[in-house]
Write a structure and sequence with these properties.
Blueprint: H1 2-12, E1 25-31, H2 58-66, E2 68-70, E3 73-74, H3 80-89, H4 93-96, H5 104-109, H6 120-125, E4 132-137, E5 151-152, H7 185-199, E6 205-210, H8 222-233, H9 241-250, H10 253-275, E7 282-288, E8 304-305, E9 308-309, H11 317-320, E10 324-327, E11 335-337, E12 341-342, H12 346-353, H13 370-375, E13 388-392, E14 400-405, E15 408-413, E16 419-423, H14 439-455, H15 461-493, H16 498-526, H17 537-544
Parallel strand pairs: 1-6, 1-7, 2-11, 3-12, 4-5, 4-6
Antiparallel strand pairs: 2-10, 7-10, 8-9, 13-14, 14-15, 15-16
Helix pairs in contact: 2-10, 7-10, 8-10, 15-16, 16-17
Length: about 550
């Protein structure tokens, strides 16, 4: 009798994945510019500053209680577009050859784009289990329908959804979104709920919702604004002037309002899945495309996402370590995991957890998270890439190539070839550079990283600089051609206000030319700029007396 009882007990103690249907559902909520510390969920059990002291995300809290939070969860890049491409294809940004926003070298390397490439949608649709795949919200470089999504909310005839759609109705009209739909939050709620009502419980699904918040410009409904302004007003403020300035940057009422208004979407989805008895069969992932830029900046021009150095645009941890929460069948509720994971692991994860028996393409860099989801810190991730790679050869931000292998993170400044090494498992603040103490480790990681970048034709910052100058020359040529066309039309019609119109056309070209020249001057200085935390832009703008947009700077 005792043996029978023990056998029955062991059966009930098996992970719930054993009882999940063989074709679970998947939801990814992808936030825009949300920092590691900016939810009300503590992302690292031992770090109080990994939870925000002011902002509230009660539904992400609920998700975390249902599942696992990753203290070492990484976005693919330090800016949005590269991350959005990378997560779709399960590849590093070096392999996708889209590494940062306005990646000018990408156009020369991959003019054909990504149409037809194996995507997150394919990872489940090729399982032969009647999956349907949907994407709503901010997209990538081209339309998601071109990479095998069945349902999207893409608004334009040709262009994908971009930042502008988070504030305007469409590109042609440039009309503002109505006040009752800030950052398209309610459009995304409606589209996602329509999709769930048509599919949940009827066929397995994968749905990715890419919010436009909390990207600038910030917006929220008035009732949320009023609530958060009152909450802010009730706070005790620092007396010191500098401390108050930093406090005001860290605790922004409008940001808190926007974040909570977006957070409600998570709760609405969870409630509906529970209502239709699909919650226990759904993997739910919440994460962000890069670190925040809405953070304090010190007098020394240093930024911090909670305890992490820097933010958006930077390959220090504050720019790439992001909120990462996963719930679903077989995942222990309220658990933490310190195993490093990256968003280009998600394609292999969906492929694995959907029970897909077709082989993955050979160029997938990520590995399935199944083992860590079910076994926490005892689990391992087996990737195609030699480590977690952040290759950021930007022509206008600090260009860094980095790799994390195990506990160690190696970084190389591509302008100067200066190298840094941190044990980010312990020193996630990146305060203690070990490069001088561990030269063999530096040399080894440098070689591994360079070999990988060369293998995938990931490009160097010198390629980006050359491509940028060629792009500026092309833009200037187009501007001159446009000027000639406008002047030809004006000369042919000879309107009564000919002189005024000619002056406006000439001024338009002059402004553009100043902008092109300013950008060339800034980039030329940037080629040798030694900084890890700043760029040449402000210095050069002051020297030449104009902004990169061509606006003349008035002397004080």
């Amino acid at each position: 009798m005792q043996k029978i009882t023990q056998s029955l007990l062991s059966l009930f103690l098996l992970p719930s994945a054993s009882f999940a249907k063989d074709a679970p559902n998947f939801i990814i909520i992808y936030m825009d510019d949300l920092g590691w510390h900016q939810t009300s969920v503590r992302m690292m059990e031992s770090e109080p500053m990994s939870k925000h002291p002011f902002y509230e995300t009660p539904n992400v809290e609920r998700l975390a209680e249902m599942g696992m939070r990753f203290s070492n969860g990484y976005a693919p890049t330090a800016t949005c577009t590269g991350s959005r491409v990378s997560i779709q294809f399960g590849q590093t940004s070096a392999r996708t050859q889209y590494r940062y926003v306005f990646d000018v070298y990408h156009e020369k390397q991959r003019p054909e784009g990504y149409a037809g490439q194996y995507s997150l949608a394919d990872a489940v649709k090729t399982a032969g289990k009647n999956y349907v795949a949907a994407h709503f919200g901010k997209g990538m470089t081209e339309k998601l329908k071109l990479v095998n999504y069945d349902v999207t909310d893409e608004y334009e005839k040709y262009a994908p959804n971009g930042n502008l759609h988070g504030e305007k109705i469409d590109i042609p009209s440039r009309r503002d979104l109505p006040p009752n739909n800030p950052k398209r939050i309610y459009s995304l709620i409606d589209e996602s709920m329509r999709f769930l009502k048509e599919n949940a419980g009827k066929r397995p699904f994968f749905m990715m919702v890419s919010h436009y918040s909390v990207h600038v410009p910030h917006a929220a409904s008035q009732k949320y604004v009023d609530k958060w302004q009152a909450k802010y007003d009730a706070l005790e403020k620092p007396k010191d002037k500098e401390a108050l300035r930093l406090f005001e940057r860290e605790c922004k009422p409008l940001y808190g309002a926007m974040l909570e208004e977006t957070d409600q979407h998570v709760g609405i989805l969870l409630d509906y899945l529970k209502q239709v008895d699909e919650l226990d069969d759904t993997y739910f992932i919440f994460t962000s495309d890069n670190g925040s830029e809405c953070i304090p900046i010190t007098r020394e021009n240093r930024r911090y996402n909670g305890p992490l150095q820097e933010g958006k645009y930077s390959c220090f941890e504050g720019g790439i370590r992001v909120p990462f929460v996963v719930s679903g069948p077989g995942i222990r509720g309220g658990s933490y995991c310190d195993v490093p994971v990256v968003q280009w692991d998600l394609l292999a994860t969906l492929h694995d957890l959907s029970g897909n028996r077709t082989p993955l393409p050979g160029d997938i860099d990520g590995g399935s998270l199944r083992d860590v989801l079910f076994n926490g810190n005892k689990g391992k991730v087996r990737r195609g890439a030699p480590g977690i790679i952040h290759h950021f050869p930007s022509h206008y931000q600090v260009p860094v190539s980095a790799i994390r292998i195990g506990d160690y993170k190696f970084m190389r400044n591509m302008n100067t070839d200066e190298k840094k090494l941190f044990n980010v498992a312990e020193d996630y603040r990146e305060e203690y550079d070990l490069a001088q103490k561990m030269p063999k480790k530096v040399a080894s990681m440098d070689k591994i990283l360079r070999n990988y970048i060369a293998e995938v034709d990931g490009g160097d910052v010198r390629d980006s600089y050359r491509a940028f100058y060629e792009t500026m020359d092309d833009f200037e040529g187009r501007a001159e051609d446009a000027h000639k066309r406008k002047m030809k039309e004006l000369d042919e019609t000879r309107p009564a206000d000919y002189a005024d119109q000619k002056a406006m056309i000439d001024q338009e070209l002059e402004l553009k030319k100043r902008s092109f020249n300013a950008n060339r001057a800034i980039t030329k200085r940037q080629e040798t700029w030694p900084g890890w935390y700043d760029t040449a832009r402000k210095t050069v703008e002051a020297e030449i007396g104009m902004t990169k947009g061509g606006k003349l700077i008035e002397k004080k």
